[in-house]
Amino acid sequence: ARGNRGNIGKRILVVDDRPSNRELLASVLGYFGHTIVQADDGAQALKAVQESRPDLLITDLLMPNMDGEELCRLLRADPATADLPIIIHTASYRTRQGRQIADRVGVRWVLPKPSEAADIVAMVSQALGIEATWPAVPLPVQQHAQASASAEAPVAAAGDGADTGLASLQVRNERLTALLENAMHIAAAQAETLASHGLVRDVQSLAQRLTSLAGVGLEMAFERDPDALAEMLCRAAQDIMSARYIGVCLTGSDGRLVKFVSRGLGGQTQALVAAGIEGCAAARRLTGPGGEGRMVVASKPGDFIGLPQAHPPVATMIGCRVAAHEAAYGWIYAADRLGDDGFTADDERLLLALGAQLATAWHGLQEVEELDRRVADRTRELQAANPELEAFSSLVSHDLRSPLGNIAGFASALSDRHGATLAP
Fold it and tell me: Is 73 left (phi over 0), alpha (psi -120 to 50) or beta?
């Protein structure tokens, strides 16, 4: 049962589909003697809760198979886990949506991602109801501090000649400090003005999402596996768009579907949606003859959505073509934005940018594949020609062997008979 392990050695279940995120929390919290159990989606987490009976659960929101919101709702509905402390751990630009979801499912704590180790420890300790006592400073750190102190001793004895320079440096530091304080006062005043209009949070969120957009663009530029490329874009789109569902539909030169990748759909649902995605109304509107070709936006009840009937119900959706350089390679959609807010104009622009990034990377892959195909064809042609070249060489060698032998014999006889009289 929970709550009987004192102030140390708590069992914490970390749920996140990214191993690096789980390992970071495990490293920080394991330093305090906690036992860390890991799961990569909500379905695995439910099983782990029954098996390990954790004292605390830390969960991401956007995960495959079962997301964090559904996980929290199921845990709160079960009397055995209704009082389990839960921390929602989500990207810092989704903190507002995370807070809205937390309020809906009865979760008190929301931890931005990334967070400083001290902030992680403080929130975890608060959720567990224990004191956040940091362990003693490790010996290597103490030794480093002692070594630094020893190294500073000769500097102190350098003589009075350094005093004048230090005094001058101190004056400059005081001036710089005054300038910095003045700049901080100005920045604080500007921040207060922006905050009064609700802009700071939105600007920070957009900046962080744009940073993520640039990062995934760099990763995609070096990816040469089509399946990995589509999965990478799908994961990044779900993260940047803060959407429960993401679907990427890639088509061939004839416009037929060649690949459907999604996030948020379970395995069976994924297969059913894939079977109907090519001919759905949203696909026809975006890519069919006379279609809008740019953007489908559903922001309120009754708006056109057009996803396959097998798709889970959604309240909001945006979709756009995967296109760049006047060439289209399919379409992408994001559905059910987290929190109580719908998709915004910024979301539309970000989805268009993601679609253009995927189109550019996909076009590059197609060019590489075409080049590889041409190289393979030419290699096969050369390999087929090699036997013929070898046969021709053998024939020529055979045909020339007798005349060349006669010439060599005549030259040898001539040398024997008249060699002495021939000019060197």
Answer: alpha
